[in-house]
UniProtKB/TrEMBL annotation:
Pathway: Carbohydrate degradation; glycolysis; D-glyceraldehyde 3-phosphate and glycerone phosphate from D-glucose: step 4/4. This is Fructose-bisphosphate aldolase. Belongs to the class I fructose-bisphosphate aldolase family. The lineage of its organism: Eukaryota, Metazoa, Spiralia, Lophotrochozoa, Mollusca. PANTHER family: FRUCTOSE-BISPHOSPHATE ALDOLASE (PTHR11627). Coiled coil: none annotated. Its EC number is 4.1.2.13.
Length: 366
């Protein structure tokens, strides 16, 4: 029986392992490729380029991503996979997990089961997937995954996010994080404040700060080891429907870093932003401005982009075998640009074929 009211549930070796994984994921100049779209979300991306949403087409697309030249690992430290992808192989029969490992890219896994309505709120939601999570995490670790992702969603309206939504989503993120750490997976904690709405930058900052306060209280309550976690937040931007003057990259950067400074403990290993419907070039320019911001920045600040790393790739590919190389070049280019932005060295001129096309999807589901 424990002699203290603090029951230590992670041994020193496990703590060191978690901190090491988190550190490798946030190596300077590198970030994460989020390729964990569910079957239906991947289907929407494929539909946009007139490719049918079959298991083999999803497999082909992921093969295109993972068989990109080894130099991809210069800017990509990890890839987040969807369950289906962890079991798939390339055309020669090599498992995707093995291909990534051989490139020195750490495989990760999305473990949440999606958002569901949160009763007693005005159209707010929580995220499901805790049932059987420990067993699933143990299995993913055995297969070679070393980190995980769980996305919660908060919405800005006149009446939201509610106290209940912030409390519930923070708690479910903390339960998930604690379970992941027991299995040796670094949890990426993702409380996404959606860009939907007409709110200004100041409102986005206040809500982001409030949501993060709930998250770090819950992580503390659940004794989560912060050095072995990553935060995946939204950048602080004005709402998609805001009609005033568009905030400059420096304004976005200041609001974002200020919010993080006020609410994220320095022990957290790193912050890996989602792109949240920003155009590819904006997501890069904003990340660069964040890394040049004169405010204190005690954590690595890098990317874990889905849409902003894949829009040009999908467009260049168009489902054609003869375009695979061109698509992979787009991925290398986006990874390189964001890798530079993650250390504040992006000087522009590296836009992909998708350019600044809006990647906003209302009420985005993953
Ligand atoms: P976007 O970069 O497309 O916002 O998505 C990243 C992600 O993994 C959301 O969970």
């Amino acid at each position: 029986m424990s002699t203290s009211r603090f029951a230590e549930y992670l041994c020193p070796d496990k703590l060191a392992e978690l901190a090491d994984i988190a550190k490798r994921l946030t190596t300077p100049g590198k970030g994460i490729l989020a390729a964990d779209e569910s079957v239906s979300t991947c289907g929407k991306r494929l539909q946009d380029i007139n490719v049918e949403n079959t298991e083999d087409n999803r497999r082909k697309y992921r093969e295109l991503l993972f068989s990109t030249d080894d130099s991809l690992s210069q800017n990509i430290s990890g890839v987040i996979l969807f369950d289906e992808t962890t079991k798939q192989k390339d055309k020669n029969g090599t498992p995707f997990l093995q291909i990534l490992e051989q490139k020195g890219i750490i495989p990760g896994i999305k473990v949440d089961k999606g958002v569901v309505p949160l009763a007693g709120t005005i159209n707010e939601c929580t995220t499901t997937g805790l049932d059987g999570l420990k067993e699933r995490c143990d299995e993913y670790k055995r297969m070679g995954c070393h980190f995980a992702k769980w996305r919660c969603v908060l919405k800005i309206t006149q009446y939201t996010p509610s106290y209940l939504a912030m409390l519930e989503n923070a708690n479910v993120l903390a339960r998930y994080a604690s379970i992941c750490q027991q299995a040796g997976l670094v949890p990426i904690v993702e409380p996404e404040v959606l860009p939907d709405g007409t709110h200004d930058l100041g409102m986005s900052q206040r809500v982001t700060e409030e949501v993060l306060a709930f998250v770090y209280k819950a992580l503390a309550d659940h004794h989560v080891y912060l050095e072995g976690t990553l935060l995946k937040p939204n950048m602080v931007t004005a709402g998609q429907g805001y009609t005033g003057a568009k905030p400059s990259p420096d304004q976005v950067a200041t609001a974002t870093v200020q919010a993080l400074n006020r609410r994220v403990p320095p022990a957290v290993a790193g912050v890996v932003f989602l792109s949240g419907g920003q155009g590819e070039e904006s997501a890069t320019v904003h990340l660069n401005a964040i890394n040049k911001c004169p405010l204190r920045r005690p954590w690595a600040l890098t990317f874990s982009y889905g849409r902003a790393l894949q829009a040009s790739v999908l467009l260049a590919w168009g489902g054609k075998d003869e375009s695979i190389k061109a698509a992979q070049e787009q991925l290398l280019k986006r990874a390189k640009a964001n890798g530079l932005a993650s250390v504040g060295e992006y000087t522009g001129g590296m836009a992909g074929v998708a350019g600044e096309t809006s990647l906003f999807v209302a009420n985005h589901a993953y």
